[in-house]
Fold:
Amino acid sequence: MHRIFQHDLELFGRVSRILGLGLPAPVKITVLPTDLTETSPVERRVDTLFRLDNPEHGPFILAIEAQGRKDPSKPASWAYYTSYVWTKYRIPTALMVVCQDHATAAWAQQPVASGPPQLPTLTLKPLVVGPHNMPVITDPDEARADLALAALSAITHAADPDIGAILKTLSTALRGVPEDIADPIIEFTAQGLGKRPAKQIWRKLVAVDLSFYKSYISEEIRDEGRAQGRAQGRAEALLLVLEQRGIDVPEHIRERITDCNDPETLGRWLARSVTAPTAEDVVADE
Structure:
């Protein structure tokens, strides 16, 4: 049933015209190897994979991917994940993509077919979760009722102009919540916000509103605060030494000293300030 197409490479074109597919005639046909076995190990990992069992509708598998930006190579990878999982487990497989901005969400939810328009064959159409369909939660009671959903809402609206209010709502909702419940929400939110400016807002809220927690991000913020305190103390001591020695400190040198947040650098400058003839010599070669 198939080898006759190898025998006559143009047979498919004639068959397609009979079927009314309207495919343009190829200018070249190349026979490819039929062995699809992987010749070398290739690591492919989906971000999260679940099996969901429902007594009424039967089981299905859900693959979840986080997508921060448009990536033309992703649809082929997603198609591979879903078809591989379907083949491996013999269970219907669905794909959900989580995005943080409207442009990426609109791109991700466009159906992508593996074949030409006349023969789509395998069409990928993921369920997309993002700022276009996730609720904006600004009521602490609503956030407290479902902390995970509130965290996901904050993450997916990371680029929203009102992200400060959204994050403030979440931090307020977390007050009084047991640490074993609050800590994962704090961390997932920080990680989910990535490198966006919203992460700095969240860090400050955690430091102020949730200072009693001992989560990783909380300890990180406190360590930074202690380091800044040490730096400020050394900067003040350095300027005091120079003042007591009667050494003039130009404004640009003073700003350099007070703006420095590295305790080790300030420690070296402080040691120099005892003997350096000028303020410029204190910060030289730095």
